[in-house]
Each structure stands twice: as structure tokens, then as C-alpha cells.
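INTERNAL AUDIT FORM
Audit reference: QA-55
Scope: verify that the stored structure record matches its stored sequence.
Auditor: D.O.
Record contents follow.
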Amino acid sequence: MTKDELLAAATSATQVSELWTLMLDYAETQRIARVSYHHHGFDEKWGAAAANPTTLRRAMDDVIVSATPRFHIIAHGFPREWVDIYVDDHLYEIDPIPALAQRRAVPFLWSEVAELTRLAEEQAAFLERSMPARVGDGVAIQVFGPNMRHGYVGMGFGDRPRDVTAPQLAEYQLVSQLMHLRACRLIEERNRSEIALSARETEVLGWMARGKSKTVIADILGLSPHTVDTLVRRIFRKLEVFDRTAAILKAINLGLVPAMSTVGD
């Protein structure tokens, strides 16, 4: 699968699982043996959008892990024993490669991490521990999404020598970024459809995000304070929260209101 074929197919995908399959097809044509995807920022409903049926542990050749309610990993092609250790021992918390990728705008090789950053003792120990697993070398790519929904894509060469060129690195970064943004959109659409705020509730939520009180919102919308209070309680119930701050943060995270709505007028 070429880059252009991948991107064309991604625009018509309706599930994150379809995007993952497309990414693996592309990786095969590029002789990429291992692929991992770390996704930050979405709540526990991410797993349902990522796979059908949903699994939080090992399934077939892929592993889907909800490490925390807002941090998720999908991995393919890595040695199963290493994946078990990585997950069970929470090594993703000290893995220096995704951590460095978060601070860099350009891809780098996994083998370069010790040259590019100062490693903490536990991070150096992680690299030593990974050597017997024969994970091999690969490319680390940071991907950026809306409302801090950033992520990491790892593309491993497996047992073959590294022979990636600068144009290939640029293509891998382009593909990874576009696929990540498409995944963000699909997950947002799913979450919106599940929560299903009414137009009026969305309007009230937007004014809440701008810092307006219920009394001011009532004046702005020409509603009674009692009606606004009822709408706010409905919003809390649908978002499964108990206060205004939690409602606003969750709404921004799910893409129900833009982050810029929090800027005062």
C-alpha cells in the first residue's frame, strides 16, 4: 500500500480499528516489522472506539492496553514475552523513547535516545532490560492532536538492519500524523454521538466554558434561571460529572466545546 492509497482509504474509515489495519498494511509495504501507537487524552471510551470487539489485553497478534483511563497503547509485531513484561511491569511509565518523542518535532531512531537526551537511572536500566528481548531498532515519531490529544508512533525494523532515509522518515511522520488526526476525529464523533447533548445544552455548556454564571447565561439566552439550572443538571448527568469544572474539562477533552471557548470574552 502506497502513502497515497493509505491516506485515501483513511478518509473513508469509520472506526479506529480500520485505521490500524490500514497502518499495518502500509507498514508491511515499507518492511516495517513492528508498530506501536500510544494515545493520550481520551477517556475510558477510547477502547470501544479502537477495537470491535473491545479488549484491554492480548488479542490475536495485536495488544490493546488501557494503561490508565486516559492513556492507551496498541502494539503489533513485538515479541510477546517483551509485551507481557512491558505491560505487567508498567515499563511504559519509564520508557525514555516516547518520553523523548514528546519533546521533539522530528523523528529519531530508538538507538539514538541515549545520545539525544540525558537518561535517568531507571530509563538506562529500561534500555538494558530491553536488549535481551531483541526488539531491534526503529523510528520514534511524536504526533500531535487537538486539545492536547497527543500520541506516539513507533515503527520497528525487526531483525533487519536500519536503512531508513531522510525522505522515508519524513513520509513516516506525515503518515503517522494524518492517521492520528483521523483517529482523533473518529473518537470525537463516537463520543459526541454517545453523549448526545441537545443544541441548547451545547450552547449552555459553551457559555459555561467561557466562565459565565448561570444567571448571566440566562440573560444571554433569554431563558429563566430555573431553565438554565435544569439544563446544567442535564449536562452533568450526561457527562457523568458532579461539578462545573469537571464538566468543562471533560467537554473540552471530548471535543464537545473548543478549548478556545475557555478564553474570556
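Auditor finding: record pair retrieved intact. The chain has two domains: 3-193, 196-262.
Action required: none
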